[in-house]
Structure formats: structure tokens, C-alpha cells
Amino acid sequence: MDNGSVKQIVVLYPVGGVGHVGPMTQLAKIFLDHGFDVTMVLIEPPIKSTDSGADFIERVAASNPSITFHVLPPIPTPDLVATSPKHPFLLILESMRQHNGTLESFLRSIPRPRLHSLVIDLFCTHAIDVATKVGVPVYKSFASGAGTLAVFTQLPALLAGRRTGLKELGDAPLEFLGVPPMPASHLGKPLLEHPEEELCGATMKILRRNASTRGVLVNTFESLESRALRALRDPRCVPGQDLHPVYAIGPLIGKAGTGGEGHECLAWLDAQPQRSVVFLCWGSKGALPKQQLEEIAGGLESSGHRFLWVVRTPAGSDDHKTYWERRGEADLDALLPEGFLERTKDRGLVIKTWAPQVDVLNHPATGAFVTHCGWNSTLEAVAAGVPMLCWPLAAAEQKMNKVFVTDEMGIGVEMEGYREGFIKAEEIEAKLRLVLECEEGRKLRERAMELKKEAEEAVQDGGSSGAAFLQFLSDVKNLRE
Fold first, then answer.
1. Which one of 317, 358, 415, 450 is CB 3.0 to 4.6 Å from 391, fit for a cystine?
2. Domains of the chain: residue spans and CATH
3. Where does the signal sequence lie (predicted)?
4. Nearest to 181 by CA among 470, 407, 349
């Protein structure tokens, strides 16, 4: 590193909220391991919730004492939520844009020789102008995979000149470099709107501006998404623009044994046969309606297989509360079929709050994972060598990830009915039997174990992800000199 024993400072700047701060925290640990000091800059978002406000920031800071957390001072403006009818996403973007001045002041307060780089996440492109004024190299951290990044990178050219939104195409497949044919309906909701709609326009502006950074740190590894990474290094991916480096530095995920110790489900798993349990969890906001929970229960019971199931309070129950505010209120007897818990008590465990997902996936008893296909959950399953039963919900890039998991990586099967938002008990039973009993399931498990080994090799000394990160550091050094 430069400057003898004086550590350089990397500034990380994510949008607030667990889905963005979590991956940035894992990235921070990589910088710390390489001898840097790390400061994560946050703002309190205009929409207060327990997974993005002051209490959330305090919890994250307390569990990561090696990272310095800096909350930018609030901007004295009218209450955006009370005064604007805009979509919440647009309010967050506007709030962060208004903090450009305070972000610039903070960056200038760091001695120039010590300020190594600014790393922003996907939705912080407004900070690129700040970095340019300060004269610090700015990079993007992309918390999802290379396949999604390849699609996002090519979307502005696809939408240029369109007079209608992509929603009208339904499930018609779209062709992108580096990924399987992608149903138009699988793109994120803002991207399906008419190009002149404010939400779609703001999203496209973000995607176009991402080319203004010095490069992208992607949460994936080379052998997992080699085709998508090749596409991102192909000039055809960004016609008319300069190509910037793409560094595959993942998987950036939590480690087993760092938060779930003593949880009741781990002791229960200890008593189950190897690779015999299906784990069902749809992420921190994956609350399914009562009718769907009843179908899941029916499928689990009919399958005869062991299961560990995280049940959240259904959507529509106290909707004004966040998940974390109502996390302990699920009444299993009221939500599940009468007698289900008693009939399955010898082979199933239902949890109504939270399970240590990384620990569960890495437990020898876990044989399959029913997942919403969020990228963090996908990578955690890949790193644990567990095949997936893909049940994407409506949020973000989950449906695209389903395509990558099933068609590209070959470590999962889709739960038919997810497009309509309802999956029947018969489908659940059939897919459980397929993965845990059939020849196709055996092949999925073998492929999953191959990818687990490749993930381990990627982050070892001399592995592809470690080499990519060292190349990133070298490129930053050359820029600074």
C-alpha cells in the first residue's frame, strides 16, 4: 500500500436498507483483509422502517466494529413523503441526490493521500459527479450477478426509441448477449413501464450512467457466470461507449457459524439424516398469503419428506407494519391446516420468526432449498452445494435469477405457477420428490457440489476472485499515479 504505514481509506456508499448494506458489508471485509480502513457512508432514508433507519444502522455498526459508519447530516427540506405523490423509489433517489453536497464535504475532509476510492452501489450514480469534483476514483459494486448486470447493461440500447413499454411483450423472450433468452415479463417492474413513465425513465438514467464509473465489482465468480462475464467484456454489450473493467470478486456472503449458534433449528437438524431435509425460506420479506401457506403444507405432508420451514405473517396482516415489527406474531395454528403441525411433528419443524440461513444451508442434513431466488440466497446455496427449487416472487431480479439458476447453472428447477403467483400442493410434492428422490435430482446435487468446490477455489489464495480483486487494487493504484 502507499504512504508507508498510513492506511488508505475506502469509502463505501450504498442505498440504505438491508438488501444493499448487507452486501456492502461483505465487500468491506475484503478491503479490511487487504489492509485498508473502510468507512461506510449512509443517509437516513425518507421512508422510515426498521430495516433502513437509525436503529438498523446502529445494529449493523454494532455487529461490524472494524467498519466506520458515517451518517450524513440530514438536509433541511420538507418531508418528501408527506409532500410528494412519487413512488418510494423515486423519493429515495431524490433524497440521496440532495445529499451530494454533504457527501462532497465528507470526502474532502479525508486527507487526499489517504482517500483510496469511492465505491457506490447501483442506485447511487448521482455520486459519480461528486467523485469527479473531488478527484477520487469511483467504482460500482453490483450486489447481484453478472447475468443481471449483462441484461441491465444492454437494456438502454434495447429501449432506445421504443414507443411502448416491455410489459406489452408478456412472456416473449428477449435476446441479450451472455444469458439465456429472457422473458420480457421477468425484468423488474420499473423496466416494464412505458419509457416515458417517470419510474422507467429514472431507472434507465441510472443504467446509462453506470458506464461513467471506472469499473464494476460484481458479486459472482468467474466459473459460475463465465458467459455473462465474457459478454460484459464485449464491445457489443455497450455500443458506442467505452468498456470498463468488470471484476468478479465473489461470492461475497456471510460465513456459517457467525450468528446462528444455539438456534433451535440447528439442534433439530443435527438429529436428521444427511441430505434429507428441504429448507423453505423466501427471504426477510417473503410473506405468503394464507391460501398459499395451506398449499405448501399440503405438499409437504403428501411428500413424506423432512422439512424446515420459515413462515412469516401473511401480507395483508397489519400491512402498515414492517416484517421486523410483526415478526413474532405469526399464529401457526390459524395459518396452517388443522392438525398439520401434529401430524408432521416427527419429520418437520416450522419456525415463525427467523432462521440462520447460511448455517442451515451448510448443515449436512439439508438436501434442497425452496427459495425466492434473491441473489444473496442464490449464492449462499451455491456456496453450500445445495440444489434449489426456484419460487421467485415479484421483487427485483428474482425471476431473472430463476432463469440463470435453472437454464445456465443447472442447479435448480422451477416451481410451475410462480408466474401466476400461486403454486399448488401437487406441484410442491412433485418437485420435492424430483429433487430428493429421482435421477434428475441426483444430477442437480452433483452439479451443486461441483459449483461449491469452484466457489471455494475462487476465494482461495490464487483463486479467480482473489486475483480479480488484486487486479482492481492495481488498476486503482495506476489511476492514482
1. 415
2. 9-254+458-480 (3.40.50.2000), 264-457 (3.40.50.2000)
3. none
4. 407
